[in-house]
Amino acid sequence: MNLPGILEWQKKLGGERLGYLYSINLTRDGGYILGGSSYSSFFRDKKDLCRGEDDYWIIKLNAAGNEG
Q1: Which among 9, 12, 30, 60 is least buried, having the fewest CB atoms inside 10 angstroms?
Q2: β-bridge mates for residue 33, sequence order
Q3: pLDDT digits over 16-47, tens only?
Q4: Which residues pair with 34 in a beta bridge?
Q5: What confidence tier does 1 reach under pLDDT thresholds 50, 70, 90?
Q6: Cα within 13 Å of Cα(1), Cβ side
Q7: What distances in angstroms separate CA 12 from CA 22, 28, 29, 66, one per listed residue?
Q8: What was the pLDDT predicted at 49?
Q9: How far apart are CA 60 and CA 52, in angstroms?
C-alpha cells in the first residue's frame, strides 16, 4: 500500500501446504525481506521433503513485489 492506503500490488507466496509469514521488513532500496515457515515439501527452489515439522524461508522482494 502507498501512503494514502491504496493497494499497489499483491503477491501470493507458498506451496501446497500451510505456511506462515512471521516477519516483514522494509529494505533501503524500497523492497522487502520476508521471513516465515512452511509445511510444504516443494516451494520455489526447495526440492526436498520437510525436515521435521516445518522449514524456514527468507525471501527478498523488490519495491514492485518481484523476487530478487
Answers
A1: 12
A2: 25, 60
A3: 778 889 999 999 999 999 999 887 765 556 55
A4: 24, 59
A5: confident
A6: 4
A7: 15, 23, 21, 11
A8: 60
A9: 25
Q: What is the pTM of this model?
A: 0.71
Nine-digit cell string for 26: 522494509
d(CA 56, CA 54): 7
Q: State the sign of the Cα–Cα–Cα–Cα dihedral 42, 47, 53, 58.
A: negative
User: Which amino acid is it at 33?
Assistant: I
User: What Cα–Cα distance (Å) separates residue 50 from each residue in 4, 27, 29, 39?
Assistant: 41, 29, 32, 7
Cα of 63 vs its chain's centroid, Å: 14
